Amino acid sequence: MQRFPFPWLAACAAAAALSCTALPAAAVEPEVIGHPWVVPPPQRAPEAYFTNVKDGDVLDAPFVLRFGLGMRGLVPAGQTAGRAGHHHLLVNQPLPLDFKQPLPFTEKYIHFGKGQMEHVVDLPPGSYTFNLLLADQGHIPYFVYGKPVRLTIRARRPVPAAQVAGAPRVQILAPAADAVVSGPVRVQFHASGYNVAHADAAVAGTGHFRLSLARAGKPPEVMEFRGGQTEAWLLPPKGEYQMTLELVSNTAAGKVTAAAPAQRLVVGAAASL
Description:
About 5% of the residues lie in helices and about 40% in strands. It is mainly beta. The protein has two domains: about 5-40 and about 165-265, Immunoglobulin-like, CATH 2.60.40.10; about 45-165, Immunoglobulin-like, CATH 2.60.40. A hairpin with a 6-residue loop joins strand 18 and strand 19 (about 255-260). About 35% of the residues are buried.
């Protein structure tokens, strides 16, 4: 029996075989888009986190750290759009004691002021603690961060950083292709080599994600994440879907900058309550 941390998730799961009705406006956070299949995340709090490493991992440098963000969107430094912000990577540094002061520019506070979602780490062997912190247009941190992860760099390889990062692309990181789910599922988007931003900021060289779910006999459901969001919690009706992720330009109307290959998602019967 699957338990849900919030009553509205249980109610949506019970109705998933038909359709998930939209939540009352008061129950939906501003960064949750208004689509009946999109539901607020279980944690009900914004968080910045790593999508491809976990605490205690042992890696060889250089390697890529990928950034995830829940209940907020991205926007470049110097820009204001809702409660969006940009990532900062803290290396061997605790969270700041004063959240009213801008973050410094040092090798221990790495800024991603263009709307980047990843960073190639190339440090000497040793143990390091990494954390993510979201900040506003003036680099003043929001209370949006995650749990720190401690990683061990075992060795340093003679590999160019560009080779480690790979070609520019967008991906659906989760769920995996051909996943079978019953109940709310987190769909995580990622952009390598591209910058993501809130569309309202209209910053050249940035884009926002668009997710489409297609099923036989029905028109595709299209969700525009214009707020610079990089994930969504979905509860589609029962069925088999082809999910397609695109990065849409924020300044060239209708231009798709990059697209990920379609991947299959199977939504089973509603979970038992």
